[in-house]
Amino acid sequence: MKALVYHGPDTKAWEDVPKPRVQADTDAVVRVDATTICGTDLHIMKGDVPAVTDGRILGHEAVGTVESVGTGVKNAKVGDRVLVSCITACAACRFCREGRPGQCLGGGGWILGHEIDGTQAEYVRVPFADTSTYPAPAGIEDEALLMLADILPTGYEVGVLNGHVRPGDVVVVVGAGPIGLSAIMGARLFSPSHIVAIDMADSRLLAAKQFGADVTINNSTDDALAIVRELTGGLGADVTIEAVGVPATFELATELVRPGGHVANIGVHGTPVTLHLETLWIKDVTITTGLVDATSTPTLLRLATSKQIAADQFVTHRFALDDMIEAYDVFGRAADTGALKIVLSRSASTER
């Protein structure tokens, strides 16, 4: 089969690799019908995630068809259309039992495209298939379903829920890429008074408006601190959500929050960040970090199926699986191409 293989920083290839097979009785092998590229994959390509080694197949999001299962799989059946979650859950360890499978001790967590071969391939082996895949509901297309593999749960859980967004809050989202947009979409469910999106690309700020932001700030030309203070009577935002993963955006998020507010960090950081406790300690600021657990996926599936959230709104470009290298180029130049989420499928008409 073909797969996107990582060969060290800035080096990848769409090449022939052995097709995966069932290795444990809880495994399923899934034919990948649609997959996508995540901002985390770009961090991997820059060398920010050293646990990913030469030869690893990347990708942790997919919609597909179950091709084979181990003898211990009870729910996923051959022929089923399923969502493959970015988080694999053993369902038995302490953290899985606490509803935190992102920290799974039983061989799960974020392993696809990280510690084991992932979904940017024609087939993928999914461990713990019963608790790491979800049956595809009727009436939801692959493209919309695919957005629930990672970005929507991540924005919702690590941004909105960790940030304790409440009705009437002023919420500032720093970074209007796909994860930032998912945080905007999730925050809108809690009726904040204002959602402010900050980015340096006008195309992404326009997208933020379409996803529900009330105010947009181009941080390359506008004074974000002055605008947010004016909007909040000088206090600062109730919740700031960092959705980029670079030191400057994290520091900005801490500068924009009010006393007693919450800073929710979603971004994947590849370099050290300065934490200004000398100014934050006296403000009673709560800072949270985290890896998605994907425990919100059933809720988000119901919302997407009932059209309460427009999950397919993220998709801007479509490619065939064999166009993986070109798709990476388009996604990696998102400021120029306007790419939000790219869908790669077995039968796709290429859109640029």
Structural overview:
With 352 residues, the chain is α/β, with parallel strands linked by helices. The chain is built from 13 helices and 15 strands. Strands 3, 4, 5, 6, 7, 14 and 15 form a 7-stranded mixed beta sheet that branches. Helix 5 (151-161) packs across helix 6 (178-188). The longest helix has 11 residues, at 151-161. The mean pLDDT is 95.
Main beta-sheet annotation? 7 strands, mixed
* Rg, nearest Å: 20 Å
Q: Helicity level, as a percent range?
A: 25-40%
Secondary-structure element series: EEEHEEHEHEHHEHEHEHEHEHEHEHHE
Mean pLDDT: 95
Q: How many helical stretches?
A: 13
Strand content: 15-25%
E-strand count: 15
Q: Indicate the overall shape.
A: globular
Relevant terms:
single chain; 352 residues; alpha/beta; seven-stranded mixed β-sheet; six-stranded parallel β-sheet; 13 helices; 15 strands; 23% strand
Question: Can you lay out the helices and strands and say which pair or pack?
Answer:
Elements: E1 2-6, E2 12-16, E3 28-36, H1 39-45, E4 62-69, E5 81-84, H2 94-97, E6 123-126, H3 129-132, E7 133-135, H4 142-146, H5 151-161, E8 170-174, H6 178-188, E9 194-199, H7 202-211, E10 215-218, H8 224-231, E11 237-242, H9 247-256, E12 257-265, H10 277-280, E13 286-288, H11 297-305, E14 315-320, H12 324-332, H13 334-337, E15 341-345
Parallel strand pairs: 8-9, 8-11, 9-10, 11-12, 12-13, 14-15
Antiparallel strand pairs: 1-2, 3-4, 3-6, 3-15, 4-5, 5-7
